[in-house]
């Protein structure tokens, strides 16, 4: 196939010694610069012939002088796509291109373009979704087009153009030419060849759809169509106008956050499922919401017990959890009626009974496979699914087979066995195919409703998972991921996941991450990057310990002995890497536990007590059958250190996080306490900032751009101990931040100022790891009063319980924030209505301080009731509309 010749043309005033170039990248991976030439120092031109199989090019203009680029357009690259033979696939941003004809691209230099966030799937395929049929003018035969790159006009308006030529209406408002939409953000009108003489002036206008003579003119001087009359008559000419000059409000949307397992409808089988998610989308659409965010939905099946309820402990980053299968799809089968009564019984429970519900669903699915497996597994759609996903299906299916056969997900315990039999292979693949089909249909339905689905990418995977078994080189198994201590978990958090071997992942340009996101992108328009700080550095806890306080950052720059001494800490470091108990401390401990119990675990050494070798790690202590008080004492003693030696770099040390709360610190002389504080604070808040930012930028730049054409909207969960470089990296990569009023990011603030939220952010009242607003309100009397006085501007004593009006005021404040997305938990929306749960404690999803928490929260009313709650729905819709969302 002969490709078009592209001619780039741009007007640009250069200085002596400067020239213009086009910097481009093609779909084939070709990158380069096309030198442009000029005859008059103003009009620059240059040609490029793409390779025959090229499907798109991206390009920007730059100024070249002195052997280097001295200036480049400050915009996202323009995108030009070529039609493939499959004309059913609509281009993301192009009009029809006749590949047998040359194309002249008449551009103007611009440092502004459509913001990168709007190029995500969330906007292109959902919020600003193209109509089913692209607008076209079938009577148009003109090869000359004026093209506009812009977001869709505000509701009730259309983009138009008026100009000095007859083609453009001769400035008469009743002759306005309306742009037709030819792609996501591309609009065009036909021109006549006489318009290309360099003298035709024009302006972009907004036209009222109901009264086309009523228009709004863009700001600034008239524009002029460049002179292109010297071009061959057979050439297509695209005059690409710069962005319209209007001050228009930016899109802001509201949404709901609710785990799928928490959904409840009249047809649920004891747990929320993908059918319930469709019903939630209906309700969201009814109320004017534009987003639905859920928690992770990957398969977590290791034991079949409630321990698998933890949604962030996946055995596969691809496979979906069977518990979310909507069994109502087979409602016409006798099989469905067989289990319906049991499903209704489980659905009537106030909380999720994970074990019984999981058993019911898997039993049903095994019987469904026996009944329908052959029919479904011989379908073309099934074969296509297997062919496209074999890279992860094979290890996942084999893992599931061996897990079931040997009764454990700990693959280190398995003998070498043959691969799964064909029927078992087909069963597991059969289930994944059905889940894929159901969730894909829900996503399509949400898109048609203009509601974006936001998923959740967990930062870790289970150490007993198909992923860890199949690709162990991608992980460090000697440590567990977690988090430093905070207000919600004073001992820190230990999630149990192996940490990532980023060096190994970089070898294939993070292919594991890119494939993971590409698969997820089939179901979601946006995604939450769980613990994005893990891309900068992860908190790693040795597998021999359990407290998060005994962790350290990976990667890190541990301190040498000389560096420690330079801070003024001149005591022997080796004495503070293991706990030492003074006589005074021992006297205090004897008040809590009998000496006979404690003495069997300590030895006297040089004026101190030290732990015996069998209890020097917390995992060793937990193996023993001990009274809880004694066990807690031993665990706390083990954590009572000031330094942790780096596991890979001997003789180098990490200060123990929050060591100021230890007995060891309290016993230091004042000058040594001050020295330790200096090295501790510098280590955690200054030393690594540039180092971590540089590491994260490299990873995230590749991971978030996992697809060359279109990606989901990335949204960071950037809470906790946030390094100084995080904000800049997220901004540079167009990743939305997370803004929570009660967790300000400015040091010294008690509550964040919502009015100062950046546009590229997600505002939320609380996450699933925090108590919902009403529970927080009754748990923290001091902060409650401060919030009442300082934020809500109320007088007197704050009520002990948050009433409807208080909850509504909070929701209203969050909706008014400038954040692009305001995503509020279902519990916090319902707080402003008598529909809310009378027991606030029942609404908490997770307790992060409890590593063995049972994730079982379910909404206390069903979605059908919610749909019929017209007073509440109208109130919510009005609040959203009033906030401009």
The CATH architecture of the largest domain can be given as Sandwich
CATH superfamily of the largest domain: Immunoglobulins
- As a percent range, the share of helical residues equals 25-40%
**Overall pLDDT score:** 92
The outline comes out as: globular
Radius of gyration: 31 Å
- Enumerate how many helices there are, as a single number: 25
Low-pLDDT windows of residues: 85-96
Question: What is the number of independent domains?
Answer: 4
Taken as a percent bin, the fraction of beta residues is 15-25%
Kindly report the CATH topology of the largest domain: Immunoglobulin-like
The secondary-structure class comes to alpha/beta
CATH class bucket of the largest domain: Mainly Beta
N- to C-terminal distance? 48 Å
Q: How many strand elements?
A: 36
Largest sheet: 8 strands, mixed
Main sheet: strand order: 4-5-1-9-18-10-14-13
GO biological process, one term: carbohydrate metabolic process
Enzyme class: transferase
Organism: Alloprevotella tannerae ATCC 51259
Catalytic activity: Transfers a segment of a (1->4)-alpha-D-glucan to a new position in an acceptor, which may be glucose or a (1->4)-alpha-D-glucan
